[in-house]
Write the structure tokens for this entry.
Amino acid sequence: MAADDAFPLPRQQAELCSFDGGVEERAWLVRPDRYRDLEQLPDGMRRIVRGGGYSYAAASFGGGALVQDFRAFDRVLGFDAESGRVRCEAGITLGKLFAFAAARGLYLPVQPGHPDITVGGCIAADVHGKSPALDGTFRRWVVELTLFHPARGLQTASAEENAELFELTCGGYGLTGHIVAATLQLRPLPIEWELENVAALSLLATVDLLVERGAGAGLAYTWNDLCASGAAFGRGFLHLGRAVNGDAARADGAPPRYQRLPPCARSPLRAWRRPVTPLFNRAYGGLQRLGRHRQAKPFALLFPIASRAAYFRLFGGRGLHEYQVLVPRPAFAAFARGLQEAVQRLRVAPTLGSCKLFTATGGHLRFAGDGICMAVDFPRSATSVAFAARLDDLTAEVGGIPNVIKDSRLPRAVVERCYPRLDDFRRGLLRLDADRLYRSELAERLAL
Amino acid sequence: MTAVVVGASAGLGRALAVELARSGRPLLLVASDRRDLDALAGDLSLRFGVAAKVLALDAADADALAAGLRAAAAELPPVEALLLPIGTVDDGDTPLLEPARARRLIDVNFTAPAAAVRELLPGMLERHRGAVVGFGSVAAARGRSRNAVYAAAKRALASYFESLRHLAEPAGVAVAFYVLGYLDTRLAFGRRLLLPKGAPTAVARRVVRRLGRDRGVGYLPRFWYPLVLALKALPHAVYGRLDF
């Protein structure tokens, strides 16, 4: 229990793992809990900030960086009821923010699926929620952010002030500096959502339905059974949701009990394999058919993973891949054909297929643009890397972009091929910080 | 009404401030860095709707602490709870610690809480109500080569609280002194410990729930009580060989 005399903060070594289980590294970890802690790291020391640690890719550790766990900085700093804006520290979790906002009849429209994810991570990965065609990505709801960099001190950035810094930081994977606080725009919270399931017989049919009926809906995404073969490949459902508004501002902001995520999707038990996955998908599809209409309360709708975290505990010792791709609408049929061919040829049993409409301003390394966003989950195995590599090629062939934050494996060459503004991003980072103090495995892998 | 927390910005102090705010008490939060205090006070007043004032100063300066408390208390509803989770350690703390550093340990761990009590207890005695809560450490159960001055200051504080109870309890003011085991705060972060770390939130909940009702000495987490008894009972022939 010897104290670490030389280092200004208590630190410990930790094995950190990307959420998908693909990258594991040993890193030095500090847990600052006062503002002066942020200023006390040794000069020139490589560093990266970590929130919940639930990025599929290794974005919050690696590359020889000291990891700063920022979760003690989770306070609400300001709130203006009239404008519906909240200012909070970036280590605040979405669950805590939801509790605060819901008690005032408000919510943040863009929410990735689990309440333990932090706001800082949402900004750094410019995440999207359930309705990217309507609500864009997280960046749209960031009014202003505060960034710390030892060479530049505290800076404020927004679309108006320090606009370049703002652009580089939203979707900048934490490489521009330390996101300390942000002001976020909230909007009135519906009482509940009315959900409808519409069945379709193939992947293309569900996506046609999505395009036809999803554009006007508040919420629209598909669930696809990618284990179904032949003409039935990707059969599934379109889930449509309509917000039911009302002026009953609730005080029941306290989030219900929910399932925690494991630190990463590696587990002793592997259930997701043939024939379990195809059977499960079939049963899940059958269940959807039973309940065509239902209502969902806000917490359950915004944080679906909060009741399904067990899904991530069944991928076995190597974890999973999530491949998420944004495909231009006219090219989706070609993508679907290629996907089916690869699934069958490589005998992959995907555990999840899901599509959404997407409309959001892209740029740099942001996963944003116009088209169909599709996510495919599959267990990490001997053949899975070949399958993922096939999806890389397919994505590039159809002019799509892969989601950098969802894939700890994504090779640099693929990102260079698919993101035409990658070099702008690299140059922007260097302009901000020639020494490139903020590093991660993701940054090393993509040569950022 | 008002609860005062000296050493409020992090660790147990911050957890106590959150629980006190949750219970609806107006707060006076004292710590060394205004940035931490402003963030905490903003959070507590927004989330729980309580008034939260802050006092940023270096508590090693007992005169400044006393003057600051006097001025702040004059503007607040009567102080009914004084919680003193303030403390500091020094990595070089052995029986040979140089005097200036030893003095700082004594000033922060002993003199500061005593100065805060001197400032705020008279009002409680006059009104015949209130609670004073101090915090010791299992590290002071028995002297060892590490944390020598820290343990001495905490042991002095334990004696001071015994006296305080003798003075204040007859006048209707509850005096409690909790001996703390390892908590999951920066003091224990990165240390390989034989025993589990208590959660500051759980300790804070318990202290606030029992505020004004717990009196005398208690151990938190509670499993430390028998361990401390056993440690004290060890003959030096055995204790002297332990390296911990």
